[in-house]
Amino acid sequence: MTDLLYSEAEGDLRAAVRSLLADRADPADLPGRIEADSPYDPALWTALAADMGTAGLLVPEKLGGQGASHREAAVVLEELGRAVTPVPYLTSAVIATETLLAARAGDLLGELATGRKAAVLAVPLSAGPDHEPAATGTVTGVADAARADVLLVVRPDGLYAVDAAEAGIVPQTPLDLTRPVATVTAESGGTRLADAGTAREAVRRGLLAGAGLLASEQLGVAEWCLEETVRHTRERHQFNRPVGSFQALKHRMAQLWLEVVGARAAARNAADALVGGSPEAPLAVAVAQVYCSRVAVHAAEECVQLHGGIGMTWEHPAHLYLKRAKADQIALGSAGHHKQTLADLAGLPAPA
């Protein structure tokens, strides 16, 4: 039976990650770090991935990981979404790790699990779970490629691990300034990890897990936006009253709260379905992405608008949440893509 509740262990993990991010990744400081062109903090990634051990949550203990599940990884992503933290957790600790698990690449998995290395699957950030990698050696829109030590490259004859220093990585201009994208060229070299058939299934598994747990990141974005908006409207006064006491704003925030509650259920259901490879996982992931992507964008838009003039400034981090939400909306399959998946699963094709 699906369990949407958080366990005590998950609560403890949330508290630990939130405490670390409060000390080392305050969203209020992020615009300044981006302005200085240094949003990524390697020391923070080491503390999160290696010292806290979150990079190995999905890796079995016999391979050097924590032997946890997608539920725990989802909790980490909720907290990273709440702080729009610029670390390669989704791309390395989830997508690349799941891909390597399916490809049975134990040696490299051990290095990822301990946080010694970060890996990125060289596919476009927009690629959905049914993505078929192109035969060309150049891929555009690869998220976090500049932060990777190893690139997982799909070629016609299989999956290869390529040292990032030996690949051509050309940064692109991203919408989300906390998740850089790049064009990657790796036509030769590297270590072959799997044959073509295994590689195809491994990439599908990695992207499915990524799409499912992206919903938890979107949930975290929406939660922060709602909480920050409620806080601001309590403190901001007009006509000698908190602006949050006006009925029109109460209604908007109440509606947003209902949407966030629904998003939490959808995201938790997707994470729970991914545990153990449930046959319902593709359905749960598609539902979560269709719903959570819209809620995150709506919450971020309301956050910007209900903050008034300050919400439109560079100094306030609201714009970073809106950019993350909009970028996530087309990441790992757009809402339209996932709606088509739902239609196919239900046997309800669109009208000709």
The helix content, as a percent range, equals 40-55%
Cα(first) to Cα(last) distance is 38 Å
Mean pLDDT: 94
Envelope shape: globular
Strand order of the largest sheet: 1-3-4-7
Secondary structure class reads alpha+beta
Strand count: 9
Q: Output the number of helix runs.
A: 11
* Portion in beta strands: 5-15%
Q: Low-confidence parts, pLDDT < 50 over ≥5 residues? A: none
List the SSEs and their pairings.
Layout lengths: L7 H17 L5 H6 L6 H10 L18 H13 L6 H15 L2 H8 L5 E3 L16 E6 L6 E6 L2 E6 L4 E4 L9 E5 L5 E4 L1 H40 L1 E2 L2 E2 L4 H28 L6 H26 L11 H12 L5 H12 L6
Parallel strand pairs: 1-3
Antiparallel strand pairs: 2-6, 3-4, 4-7, 5-6, 8-9
Question: Would you write up a description of this structure?
Answer:
It is a single chain. By secondary structure, the chain is of the alpha+beta class. Helix content is 53%, strand content 11%. The protein contains 11 helices and 9 strands. The strands form 3 sheets. It has a 4-stranded mixed beta sheet with strand order 1-3-4-7, covered by helices on one side. Strands 2-6-5 form a 3-stranded antiparallel beta sheet, with no helix packed on it. Helix 7 (196-235) packs parallel to helix 9 (281-306) and helix 9 runs antiparallel to helix 11. The model has no long low-confidence stretch (mean pLDDT 94).
Attribute tags:
352 residues; 53% helix
Summary of the model, kept short:
By secondary structure, this protein is of the alpha+beta class. It is 53% helix and 11% strand. It starts with 7 loop residues before the first helix and ends in a 6-residue tail after the last helix.
